[in-house]
């Protein structure tokens, strides 16, 4: 099936929202997997009489709402694709099109039954693309004799929903279940979930119709790498502390607090502002021994192999200065939620 048919791009709703808000210039943000729909979405916007401008910048989450770009382009509406609302306050009217997947999941969930046969109490979680099918999945599991829980910690838009740096819904039920069934494509969110709940995660991938398990060993591999990174950072003399410029990644107060603590621990520090944090940024300032990334916590975890020097999260920096124990970091769900 082409990607075009996989996701609901809500074309009618775009038209209705543009006319309801009387928008004349619309900035459209698309996640990487939907960038190829640029031409099609531009056509839909143009039909309403508004001027479409598609952001070609990468967009990995609703933390990256293109407010600055919209302001500089005089756009009066942002259409943000692929994520649900994250920021509480938006300077420019924003319409979220969550790009729900239009897939039948019963086949892959049936397939997952043999992988979850040893557990009777299961947690259910997913990303925003599949929140609409959680009730259906729950029914299948209940029919198979399982007790099913779906967490709602109140931080996400939907019960059971997780994003790359927030697994609070799953954590809120973690102590009451033996394992999780996770409906999602790719390993990115699944690894984050396993790290956060530290319980077995059975992944039912509705795109590939594939079932696999992320278990203790996978989590230990990540934890071993993080432990090694923290030890390396402890030996560092100088630290660059990155402050994200994306609206949902700006944590200046946290960066200032960590900077002060590192200075008190005898380290030299320097604050750096960044939009896209990646290994190339670090290559340019290679005179610094170690880096604290206060922006997106997943970059340090998932891209660690691409960084030549230790890149740690804010919580890991707290371990470096002795403010947080390694055990508390592990049991806190890693992302602090
Ligand atoms: S901070 Fe990172 S993990 Fe969290 S929503 Fe943004 S891009 Fe995703």
Structural notes for this entry:
- Helix 2 packs across helix 3 (38-47) and helix 10 packs parallel to helix 13.
- This protein has 337 residues and is α/β, with parallel strands linked by helices.
- The chain folds into 3 domains: 3-97, Rossmann fold (3-Layer(aba) Sandwich); 106-214, 3-Layer(aba) Sandwich (Rossmann fold), CATH 3.40.50.11850; 220-331, 3-Layer(aba) Sandwich (Rossmann fold).
- It contains 14 helices and 13 strands.
- The two termini are 36 Å apart.
- It is flat and about 60 Å long.
- Strands 6-5-7-8-9 form a 5-stranded mixed sheet, with helices on both faces.
- The model has no long low-confidence stretch (mean pLDDT 95).
- Residues 60-61, 63, 163-165, 248-249, 296, 298 line the site of iron/sulfur cluster (SF4).
Using only C-alpha atoms, the radius of gyration works out to: 21 Å
Categorize the overall geometry: flat
What is the H level of CATH, i.e. the homologous superfamily of the largest domain? Diphthamide synthesis DPH1/DPH2 domain 3
Widest beta sheet: strand line-up: 6-5-7-8-9
Taken together, the total number of domains comes to 3
Give the N-to-C terminal Cα separation: 36 Å
Number of strands: 13
Strand content: 15-25%
Helix tally equals 14
* Strand-pairing-aware structural class: alpha/beta
Provide the residue-averaged pLDDT: 95
Outline of the structure:
The chain has about 325 residues and is α/β, with parallel strands linked by helices.
List the defining traits of the structure above.
alpha/beta; 35% helix; 5-stranded mixed β-sheet; binds iron/sulfur cluster; Rossmann fold; 4-stranded parallel β-sheet; 337 residues
């Amino acid at each position: 099936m082409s990607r075009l048919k996989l996701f609901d791009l809500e074309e009618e709703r775009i038209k209705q929202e543009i006319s309801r808000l009387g928008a004349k210039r619309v900035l459209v943000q698309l996640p990487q997997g939907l960038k190829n729909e640029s031409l099609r979405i531009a056509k839909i916007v143009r039909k309403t009489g508004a001027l479409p401008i598609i952001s070609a910048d990468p967009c990995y989450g609703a933390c990256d709402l293109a407010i600055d770009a919209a302001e500089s382009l005089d756009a009066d509406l942002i259409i943000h694709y692929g994520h649900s609302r994250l920021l509480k306050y938006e300077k420019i009217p924003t319409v979220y099109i969550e790009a729900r997947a239009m897939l039948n999941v019963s086949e892959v969930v049936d397939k997952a039954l043999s992988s979850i046969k040893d557990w009777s109490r299961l947690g259910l979680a997913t990303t925003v693309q599949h929140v609409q099918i959680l009730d259906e999945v729950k029914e299948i599991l209940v029919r198979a004799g399982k007790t099913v829980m779906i967490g709602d910690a109140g931080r996400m838009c939907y019960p059971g929903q997780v994003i790359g740096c927030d697994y609070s819904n799953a954590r809120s039920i973690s102590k009451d279940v033996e394992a999780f069934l996770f409906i999602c494509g790719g390993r990115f969110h699944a690894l984050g979930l396993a790290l956060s709940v530290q319980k077995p995660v059975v992944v039912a991938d509705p795109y590939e119709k594939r079932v696999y398990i992320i278990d203790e060993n996978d989590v230990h591999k990540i934890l071993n790498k993080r432990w090694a990174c923290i030890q390396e950072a402890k030996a560092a003399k100088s630290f660059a502390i990155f402050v994200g410029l994306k609206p949902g990644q700006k944590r200046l107060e946290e960066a200032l607090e960590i900077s002060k603590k590192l200075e008190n621990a005898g380290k030299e520090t320097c604050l750096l502002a960044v939009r896209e944090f990646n290994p190339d940024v670090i290559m340019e300032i290679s005179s610094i021994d170690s880096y604290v990334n206060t922006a997106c916590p997943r970059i340090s975890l998932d891209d660690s192999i691409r960084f030549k020097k230790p890149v740690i999260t804010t919580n890991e920096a707290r371990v470096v200065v002795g403010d947080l124990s390694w055990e508390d970091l592990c049991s806190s769900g890693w992302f602090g939620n």
